[in-house]
Design brief:
The protein is an all-alpha fold and 67 residues long. Helices cover 61% and strands 0% of the residues.
Length: 67
């Protein structure tokens, strides 16, 4: 019982050669390297800065104070 492959063998060998010949780290080899190494940390940093700024604003104006 054999299964058909998702990608042709020639394309698979071509991709394997491409990844073997790169000198970068493994997580930076794909086409989504910009998302994992740049965009995600920027989004996390931006959202945390927004929440810190919002908290400082609320503290300085006594907004959402629990009594």
């Amino acid at each position: 019982m054999t299964e058909t492959s998702f990608v042709s063998r020639e394309r698979l060998f071509k991709q394997q050669d491409y990844f073997r010949n790169l000198t970068k780290y493994t997580h930076l080899k794909g086409r989504f390297a910009m998302i994992t190494s740049v965009a995600t940390p920027l989004v996390l940093a931006g959202s945390s800065l927004f929440m810190i700024g919002n908290g400082i604003y609320n503290m300085s104006h006594n907004i959402e104070k629990k009594e």
